[in-house]
Design goal:
Length: about 240
């Protein structure tokens, strides 16, 4: 079985790669690959393949085309791609703070890129055997659970992600009967993404990346194709869209 981690340099990406590196060492996986905009980290186990991309969709696509030419078949893909804050672009608390370019950037990275990657992955996903594509999402992307408001762009782009994956799941049921598509909320995890907001988190509610990676992998283990398109909490329970 060949697994691929996309967005392998972020907090959760690194931890997921380390988690699945153990599965590779134990022989549960035959191949493990990683994609990232960052260079291969020094000292990474050389049995792991590393594909550096520039962040443009066409660059990810080139790698998928290369894998297809090599007749690679993927049984598992985890994408951690997502952003919440960068420089002056901070989550919007009020409608006056909305900025068109920032909103577009949320949708581009949190929703459009993940579904376009799924399009590119389609030819190399296992068709006859069980397989999964898990994209990390966010509980704040639940429309029915939104009680607090704020964070317009992040919430809306993660809600769009849920709709895109749910829609794809309906279509893929015809061609990839054993495929599970999933959007998984990792829980609040100690990474660069959550750093500016950690003071407000209640004691015991901030998890290490290693802890969250193990929980995400557990949710993935329990996925069933009949639930494809689901939106999951880190403990394996369903989240409402
Ligand atoms: N940390 C939390 O508390 C938390 C809570 C809820 C949901 N999440 C979700 O979990 C996922 C991982 O988050 P994290 O905490 O590990 O954050 P992180 O350390 O900032 O990692 C984010 C990842 O997204 C990729 N990425 C960011 N901007 C990108 C862009 N413009 N183009 C392509 N790739 C981009 C990066 O991939 P490269 O390897 O290519 O740099 C990076 O690995 C995100 O989708 C986030 O929304 C996190």
């Amino acid at each position: 079985m060949h697994y691929l981690i996309i967005g392998a340099s972020g907090g959760l990406g690194q931890a997921l790669l380390q988690h699945y590196a153990k599965s590779l060492a134990q022989g549960e996986l035959t191949q493990l690959s990683a994609m990232s905009r960052q260079a291969r980290p020094a000292g990474l186990d050389d049995t792991i393949s590393w594909y550096q991309v520039n962040g443009d969709l066409s660059d990810y696509q080139q790698v998928f085309t290369q894998l297809e030419a090599e007749q690679a078949v993927l049984h598992g893909v985890v994408s951690t791609i997502g952003w919440l804050h960068q420089g002056d672009w901070q989550p919007e608390r009020r409608i006056e703070a909305l900025d068109e370019a920032q909103l577009n950037a949320y949708f581009a990275v949190n929703a459009t890129l993940p579904i376009m990657l799924l399009q590119g992955l389609k030819p190399i996903l296992a068709r006859k055997e069980p397989a999964f594509v898990a994209q990390l999402g966010a509980k704040v992307g639940s429309i029915s659970d939104n009680q607090l408001g704020g964070w317009y762009g992040y919430r809306a782009s993660k809600a769009a992600l849920n709709m895109l994956f749910k829609t794809a799941a309906i279509e893929f049921k015809r061609t990839h009967k054993k495929l599970s598509l999933a959007v998984i909320h990792p829980g609040t995890t100690d990474t660069e993404l959550s750093k500016p907001f950690q003071q407000r988190i209640a004691d015991g509610k901030l998890f290490s990346a290693e802890q969250s990676a193990a929980r995400i992998a557990q949710v993935i283990n329990n996925l069933d194709p009949s639930d494809s398109g689901g939106f999951w909490f880190w403990d394996g329970s369903r989240l409402p869209y």
